[in-house]
């Protein structure tokens, strides 16, 4: 299970890190402790993805819907993200990690946006794994912002509606220049996409694992990658044997 062939490692893995609260509840701890343990799992996941040869790792850190949580929890999550960038940026930079942030940047607190921009700017030239942090992200919101942007281009006469191809739309989303995810993992046993990368995950393999996010270890991650390697992706085509039969 521990040998992964480079040819079957997904280029882009995206993860819905779910179950921090339940992890804490199960131990009689406050939810904030679950999120704190979750940050440790984030560090381990970045290291594991890099060591396995994954090129892009996208983590759903804060959704546009998470603002509906109690103020104290929102503030805990913001604090953790800020601390993560302040404490880990130098280490990630040294590990040659490139950071990208996706999500709506409008109206972000004045102590968050500069940190996100600094993380992107500092690591822009790195050539190792790209860590994509989905922050204040929701897929429908991303698509709506993109549609508005493109509609403005059309209204200004800079874009003809015939140029609105799926490639053009992909290239206008927050994830422009990032390949579509090959594998989307959700932890905690829930089986939903929850407004995460809806456009980009059109052909992704979906994997739902029972572990709560704080328990998502190097071994759990490697097992998921091994399970992915055994899947057959057809992208709407036929499986190889059927293709042969049709062709012969
Ligand atoms: C889901 O657990 C997790 C989140 C809403 C946030 C994930 C955030 C982190 C792991 C920490 C910050 C991230 C980075 C990149 C430093 P939940 O609270 O929905 O758990 P529950 O469903 O069990 O209540």
From TrEMBL:
Enzyme class: transferase
Keywords: Magnesium, Metal-binding, Transferase
Active-site positions on this chain: 18, 66
Any Pfam family matching the protein: Prenyltransf
Binding site residues for Mg(2+): 18, 205
Record note on cofactor: Binds 2 magnesium ions per subunit.
GO function term, MF aspect, one: transferase activity
InterPro entries noted in UniProt: UPP_synth-like, UPP_synth-like_CS, UPP_synth-like_sf
EC annotation from Swiss-Prot or TrEMBL: 2.5.1.-
Required cofactor names: Mg(2+)
Record-listed substrate binding positions: 19-23, 31, 35, 63-65, 67, 69, 186, 192-194
Task performed by this protein: Catalyzes the condensation of isopentenyl diphosphate (IPP) with allylic pyrophosphates generating different type of terpenoids.
Subunit structure: Homodimer.
PANTHER family xref list: DEHYDRODOLICHYL DIPHOSPHATE SYNTHASE 2 (PTHR10291:SF0), DEHYDRODOLICHYL DIPHOSPHATE SYNTHASE FAMILY MEMBER (PTHR10291)
UniProt xrefs under NCBIfam families: PRK14830.1, PRK14834.1, uppS
Official protein name in the record: Isoprenyl transferase
Source organism: Shinella curvata
């Amino acid at each position: 299970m521990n040998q992964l062939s480079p040819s079957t490692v997904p280029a882009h893995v995206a993860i819905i890190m779910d179950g921090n609260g339940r992890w804490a509840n199960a131990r009689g701890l406050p939810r904030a402790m679950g999120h704190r343990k979750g940050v440790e799992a984030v560090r381990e996941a970045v290291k594991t993805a890099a060591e396995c040869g994954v090129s892009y790792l996208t983590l759903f850190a804060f959704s546009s819907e998470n603002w509906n949580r109690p103020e104290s929890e929102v503030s805990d999550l913001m604090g953790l993200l800020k601390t993560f960038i302040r404490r880990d940026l130098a280490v990630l930079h040294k590990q040659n990690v490139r950071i990208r942030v996706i999500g709506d940047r409008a109206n972000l607190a004045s102590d968050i946006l500069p940190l996100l921009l600094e993380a992107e700017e500092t690591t822009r030239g790195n050539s190792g794994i790209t860590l994509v942090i989905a922050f204040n992200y929701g897929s429908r919101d991303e698509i709506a912002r993109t549609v508005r942007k493109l509609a403005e281009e059309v209204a200004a006469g800079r874009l003809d509606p015939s140029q609105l191809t799926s490639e053009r739309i992909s290239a206008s989303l927050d994830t422009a220049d990032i390949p579509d995810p090959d594998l989307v993992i959700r932890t905690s046993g829930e089986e939903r996409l929850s407004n995460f990368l809806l456009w980009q995950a059109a052909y992704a393999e979906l994997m739902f694992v029972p572990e709560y996010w704080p328990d998502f270890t190097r071994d759990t991650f490697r097992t998921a990658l091994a399970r992915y390697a055994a899947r057959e992706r057809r992208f709407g085509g036929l499986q190889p044997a059927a293709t042969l039969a049709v062709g012969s």
